[in-house]
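Recall that a protein's primary structure is simply its ordered list of amino acids. Everything else, from secondary elements to tertiary packing, is in principle encoded there. The following example makes that idea concrete.
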Amino acid sequence: MIPYYLNEYHTILGKISYMNVKPVYYGLEKDGVSPRLIIKSGSPAVLNRMIQAGRLDISPVSSAAYAKNHEDWLILPGFSISCDGPVLSVLLVSRVPFKRLENRRLILTRDSAAAAGLLKCLLHQDQISPRIATGRVTDPAHIGPDTAAGLVIGDAALKHPWRDRFEHVYD
């Protein structure tokens, strides 16, 4: 489906707006973008919704979004935003140890479906049931004193000194 404001000669590419994926787009940005290519930036969750709504032609998507849409979406082989070792851009920051999150408030960033899904699986595996909320988690101030922990991703995870504010930081 081509948006009404474009003709069939345009391609709309989704771009994750975090600094840790800059190398993925380096060639496009360094050598210039074809006038036929339109780049739309957003968080992983935003890009997931845009491609699902037909507003993007190609885009990185979370593994959780792909799993839900695997019959309709095509994966390009050999492409992945992945890490062998510490990720550093996906953090659970907490005032209490992981095992003590039972019935405590945990805020999940609204910018990621995959990280939130993985965290929920880990909690379920350890039979831990916190009181989960979803919201904006881009600054330590977004995790108020009534909240035990928060899930942070992307630039927010990389640029703030979370270890200075939270006793427990899990990568």
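The longest helix spans residues 114-125. The beta strands are 11-16, 37-42, 90-94, 105-109, 131-135, 149-153, 168-170.
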